[in-house]
Write a structure and sequence with these properties.
The protein is about 45% helix and about 15% strand. By secondary structure, it is α+β, with helices and mostly antiparallel strands. The protein has one domain: NADH Oxidase. The chain has a four-stranded antiparallel beta sheet with strand order 1-2-4-3, with helices on both faces. Helix 2 packs across helix 7 and helix 5 packs antiparallel against helix 6. It is globular, with a radius of gyration of 19 Å.
Length: about 210
């Protein structure tokens, strides 16, 4: 088995959801930025990258967040809470993204212009619900990638979907285009994560 796969497999199996972190441990802003930059290598629909992040470390902000997040203890103890936010108007970045792809040599001018034309014909006209679904799907991809990167660096994580999203929008004064999707706590575990079983393959896979 290739060494790279072995390492990846170990990271996947070691990553567990931790709910009690070492509150005395601090992850630097620089290291969080490094993890986020690496996480953005995740794929996204038409490469429009409809993810945005809010990194919450301030104690008072955590307290306010905890009030409408079912008082989950990891909000107190994680080194940082990363809110993953979907941009339902990702089409505003079409020109910037494809121009950057062209300038980096990833595509020629004709392909760039064709991709821009196709994206502009599709995304702005799509219903908001459809764009939210796209953003949520892509946010799931980058969230999982971020958690594996964190584990590879020796950190632990937990995802939290249990929070009042409307209150989050109000608290942080988000524009209508932005939808909070999930919170990710990251830090050093202070207690082991619970193990969890998985359904057998024959129950979830069909070969045709």
């Amino acid at each position: 088995m290739p060494e790279k796969y072995t390492i990846l497999s170990e990271i996947i199996h070691e990553r567990k959801s931790v709910r009690k972190f070492d509150s005395s441990y601090t992850i630097s802003r620089e290291e969080i930025e490094e993890m986020l930059i690496e996480a953005t290598e995740a794929p996204s629909s038409s490469n429009l990258q409809p993810w945005r992040f809010m990194v919450i470390q301030d104690e008072e902000t955590r307290k306010r967040l905890k009030e409408f997040s079912y008082n989950q203890q990891q909000l107190d103890t994680a080194s940082a809470i990363i809110a993953v936010i979907g941009d339902t108007e990702m089409y505003h970045n079409i020109d910037e993204i494809y121009q950057a792809n062209f300038e980096a040599g990833y595509m020629d001018k004709a392909n760039m212009e064709n991709q821009i034309s196709n994206a502009k014909a599709l995304y702005p006209k799509a219903p908001v619900e459809a764009r939210l679904n796209i953003a949520a799907f892509d946010a799931g991809l980058i969230s999982m990638q971020l958690m594996l990167i964190a584990k590879a660096k020796g950190y632990d994580t937990v995802t939290m979907g249990g929070f009042d999203k409307q209150q989050f929008v109000k608290e942080f004064d988000l524009e209508d285009r932005y939808a909070p999707l999930v919170l990710i706590g990251v830090g050093k575990a202070a207690a082991p994560a619970y193990g969890s079983s998985r359904l057998p393959l024959e129950k979830i896979v069909t070969f045709i």
